[in-house]
Write a structure and sequence with these properties.
- The chain is an alpha+beta fold.
- The chain has three domains: about 70 residues; about 120 residues, Immunoglobulin-like (Sandwich), CATH 2.60.40; about 90 residues, Cupredoxins -  blue copper proteins (Immunoglobulin-like).
- Helix content is about 35%, strand content about 20%.
- The chain is built from seven helices and twelve strands.
- The strands form three sheets. The chain has a five-stranded mixed sheet with strand order 3-2-1-5-8. A five-stranded mixed sheet has the order 4-10-9-6-7, covered by helices on one side.
- A hairpin with a 7-residue loop joins strand 6 and strand 7.
- Helix 4 crosses helix 7 and helix 5 crosses helix 7.
- It is elongated.
């Protein structure tokens, strides 16, 4: 990956690898379910073996006792016990955000994520895409909504799923307990590229997060070479600004992701391609080959010199 990649490696996308307060609760409940299911399975198999061994010698059984006892009462008692157990262990702070919580807005699109922060110095929105940064040890309140169809926010290592419904804002609170990169995924089928709608969460120390947010609030870096100037001119000439915003260069594009600091992100196209040299040009030239059905058209008619300059400028935006 590029130089923006944190030193920690990407963690498993699994509910059994919790790295957040809510996720630890979910993992604990999951282990109870796994162990309980295993015990019940072993007990049923033992009962079956006992019945087969005593076939022909055992006394007749009473069907109604087994039907009502094993088929009705036992499942009811187990399910009620599980409901009480899981309800009592739900973190109390999920109901209301604590005073020191960080508030982040996430809007799901087909097929990418728009992430908005509030700059603590100016109060202005700071917009990025497909990447959520969190400070370790601080509660974060996520405001979730959808631009088009029903999506679902799901980062297994941090919390359970939460549906994102057009016209409605739902809330989810997470708190990362250790630094790392955690992969999330849209958990509700939302169309052709549902499988390529990933979100990466970067949890870092509070000081590192504050520095990152301050950098994200700045406008795009000025080009410092003729190649980068050519790339910025190509961005305007190719009308990329009709869909994309680059603060300090072109503002107003809202159909596609904000590209002000795209060069510092881990992946392109919602987790589809690592943000490495060459992949930006590949994505621009053959968008539909990489991610068929994406709202961005391919641009195979751009000459190589212009394409390389445009890609170099976008990679420069960190």
């Amino acid at each position: 990956m590029n130089g923006a990649t944190p030193a920690v490696q990407q963690q498993l996308q699994s509910v059994m690898s919790p790295a957040g307060t809510a996720a630890h609760t979910v993992a604990g409940i999951s282990w109870v379910l796994f162990i309980g299911a295993a015990v019940i399975f072993v007990a049923v198999m033992a009962l079956l073996a006992w019945a087969l061994l005593r076939r022909g010698t055992a006394r007749p059984v009473h069907g109604k006792i087994w039907l009502w006892g094993g088929g009705v009462m036992f499942p009811v008692l187990v399910l009620v016990a599980l409901m009480v157990y899981s309800t009592q262990r739900a973190p109390g702070w999920l109901a209301t955000a604590p005073p020191n919580a960080l508030h982040v807005s996430i809007t799901a699109h087909m097929w990418w994520w728009e992430v908005r922060y509030r700059d603590p110095l100016t109060g202005q929105d700071v917009t990025l895409a497909n990447e959520l940064h969190l400070p370790v040890g601080r509660p974060v309140s996520l405001g979730l909504n959808s631009f088009d169809v029903i999506h679902s926010f799901w980062v297994p290592a941090l919390a359970g799923k939460r549906d994102m419904v057009p016209g409605r804002v739902s809330h989810l609170q997470v708190e990362a307990t250790q630094a790392g990169v955690y992969r999330g995924q849209c958990g509700e089928f939302c169309g052709e590229q549902h499988a390529r709608m990933a979100l990466h969460v970067v949890a870092s120390a509070p000081a590192e997060f504050d520095a990152w947010l301050a950098a994200q609030a700045r406008p795009a870096a000025a080009p410092d070479s003729a190649l980068l100037v050519q790339g910025r001119q190509a961005f305007m000439a190719q009308r990329c600004n009709a869909c994309h915003t680059v603060r300090g260069v072109a503002e107003g594009g809202r159909l596609g992701p904000d590209l002000t600091h795209v060069g510092g992100r881990l992946y392109l196209a919602a987790g589809t391609l690592p943000n490495q040299r060459g992949n930006v040009a590949h994505w621009i030239a053959d968008t539909q080959g990489v991610k068929p059905g994406a709202r961005m058209p391919s641009s195979p008619d751009i000459d190589n010199a212009t394409l390389n300059a445009l890609a170099a400028w976008l990679e420069h935006l960190k």
